[in-house]
Specification:
This protein is about 40% helix and about 15% strand. By secondary structure, it is α/β, with parallel strands linked by helices. It has a five-stranded parallel β-sheet, sandwiched between helices. The longest helix has 17 residues. The relative contact order is 0.19. Bound molecules: coenzyme A (COA). Coenzyme A binds next to β1, α1, α4 and α5. The site of coenzyme A has 24 residues, from β1, α1, α4 and α5.
Length: about 170
């Protein structure tokens, strides 16, 4: 990396239930680059629980102490958006082996689409390796405690959306 050029990275995702795993990647990424754009993909195929605006608001709340992180959203191809904002790197978190095949396919396709942008894989904190947004939703719906896995803003909105009060006992 040359010293004079600003190094900008893009962390794209659906972020439909921001977890501490995502935040861990964001924190680590923010230390590596001059600027990190975390961007919510408009991806209605995934039937998201949160609107893009809600996901952006949660991301803004949870990254407010990271001055070089900005939050955005985008339509279309990740590579087109990376080009548009001048990002030379895309970061993606890899948790378990099963993530790898999909991520490798995406990275190779993205490289074919835009060889100027490099994909970097990062590993989140060990205690977050088994966390995913859909698992969190399932645990919360069944009355489990998700506070170790998602920040309060995600939990609050999930409880409101699914009408699950905080003290829900689960089975009864
Ligand atoms: N901690 C916890 N969970 C994580 C995680 C981490 N560090 N990293 C990923 N996950 C989980 C998410 O919670 C999510 O779980 P879920 O499926 O249970 O909801 C899952 O992994 C994937 O989520 P995410 O990281 O948000 O990525 P995605 O696969 O939904 O999004 C895009 C992928 C948006 C990057 C991809 O679809 C894309 O690039 N879209 C734009 C269109 C495009 O360019 N298509 C061509 C691609 S080659």
């Amino acid at each position: 990396m040359s010293a004079d050029k600003e190094h900008r990275a893009l962390y794209p995702g659906t972020f439909d239930g921001l977890t501490y795993g995502h935040l861990d990647i964001i924190r680590r990424g923010s230390k590596l680059f001059d600027r990190l754009t975390v961007a919510v993909a408009h991806n209605e195929d995934k039937n998201p629980v949160f609107t893009v605006e809600e996901r952006i608001e949660i991301l803004r709340t949870e990254t407010r102490e990271l001055p070089n992180v900005e939050i955005a959203s985008f339509y279309g191809l990740t590579m087109d958006y990376a080009e548009k904002i001048g990002a030379s790197y895309v970061i993606r978190g890899i948790r378990v082996v099963s993530d790898f095949e999909y991520e490798l396919q995406m990275a190779l396709m993205n490289r074919a689409l835009n060889p100027r942008v490099e994909t970097l894989f990062m590993v989140p904190a060990a205690e977050q390796l088994y966390v995913s947004s859909s698992l969190i939703k399932e645990v919360l719906l069944l009355g489990g405690d998700v506070s170790n896995f998602v920040p309060p803003s995600t939990e609050k909105l999930l409880r409101r959306r699914f009408n699950v009060p905080r003290s829900s006992p689960g089975a009864s």
